[in-house]
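Handout, page 2. Input:
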Amino acid sequence: MKAVKTGDPAADETQLGPVSSKEQLHTLCEQVAKSVEGGANLICGGKPSGVGQYFPPTVLANCKPGTPANEDELFQPVAFIIKAKDYEDAMRIANESRYGPRGGIFWTDEDRVVKLARDHFDTGMIRINSFGAVDPNMPFGGVKDSG
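Output:
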């Protein structure tokens, strides 16, 4: 994440452009700061960089309930890590969210992953052992307050 190049979206070397507005940049700064104040560990990023509305890729670990990283949709280049005890705990954590646009499950036992995704994961789009943008062969949309 530290190596991702932010900048002008028209430049060939740019991998991540600016956030959508000054208001969104302000909101993102507040969400990250409140998450850190609430106990999350800032691994990288976390503060606006350069001139304009650029926010670096950010990773927050050990995100706690009640913080924006755990409770909100950030819509920005922020990854957050929430530890689970086992797959049942992971499904509980994921499904507690009031949002559900899309999700992903990474695991070596693909048969178990498909069963978890089908039977237990309460989200719109689901990726298995991959991530990425919306895929035209997948249904589009979310559930709950995303949907």
